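User: Batch of two.

Assistant: Item 1 of 2:
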Amino acid sequence: MSRGRWASVHAMTHSAIARTLVVTAVCWIAGPASAQQSSSITEAETGPSISVTTSAPNPAPEQHWLQVDLEEARDRSRRTRNALIGTSAGFLVGSILAGVGLSQCQEVPNEQANTYDTLLCNNAGKVMLPLGGTIAGLSFVGMLTSGIMLGVSNKRKREIQRDIRRSQYGRRLQWDIPSGAFVF
């Protein structure tokens, strides 16, 4: 008997939820329509407004977009800083590999002019020297590129921060020479 009672309560719960969803959907659709109808009726009854009121533009949207730009600039700066750190680490690894490969080589003198112009390397030197040199060279190019990009992104971030400060504090007090007074 208690199981039958539980089933009816459970069924009522589902039906109550279904009714609530239907009423919510109807109100959702009918809500904006009734608001539009009431506004058009009020405009028709009152007629067009005769006075025109102007106000200063709201700085909030501009401030919002400056904050969005600042967040994007911070992300860009963080990514380029991480790229600079990564390429610097690659340069270090490549330099170490090239140095170890170079230690596995010895210079062979030229008998004619008594100069060193060839390297004689064992197998480890033959692999590590070109591999380390390539990694170090490519990482050096990446390091230069990401360093330049980091400088540019940090400059952009500082410009946005300056614009935010200027929008918060307004214009500065300045001496206007033609009028002979302080102006904002």
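Item 2 of 2:
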Amino acid sequence: MKDVVDLEKARLEKMAQRGYRNWVSQLGEDFQLETRPSHISVEALRVLGQGKETSAFYLYDLIMNLQNLGSGFEFNELNPKDKMAVIDRYLFLLDRIRFEYMKRLGWLEDYPGEDFTLVDLIIRFEQLAPALQAKTPTLSRNHPAYSRFSKMKDLEREEFIRKLIPKALIKIQDHSTTL
């Protein structure tokens, strides 16, 4: 009996391979359809989490390839509607990448979306993002401010976590790849 080919999976694998081509060549890792934030090395998280031109390009490139919008090099040529769709996904992914780093620092226990692949987070953005964005990452019980955090309301907790991001970005530059 011949094997049944999952055409949708094959199509996504090809799109992911194209979207990750610059990640593989520049970050020196193997990224695939099943790559989750937890699979990314600290070195790659360091590059991707900065939110600057280089990291934006890698994320735009992945997003645009998966959305059939071209490569990240063509971001500035997108129409306003498509550009906003890419930016929405970019900010969403950037949060997951930064949350992953904060988890590796021991600051977070978990964060919304960590069980999804990067590809799923992009292609299922419309379905996944609203629920995931409504949830706040869980601060680690070992974090010095956990007692204060546990007494906060939901909006205060989200603000508290967001205020940790600049500190994490500083830490990401200071740490070795052993996290």
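Residues 54 and 135 are 28 Å apart (CA to CA).
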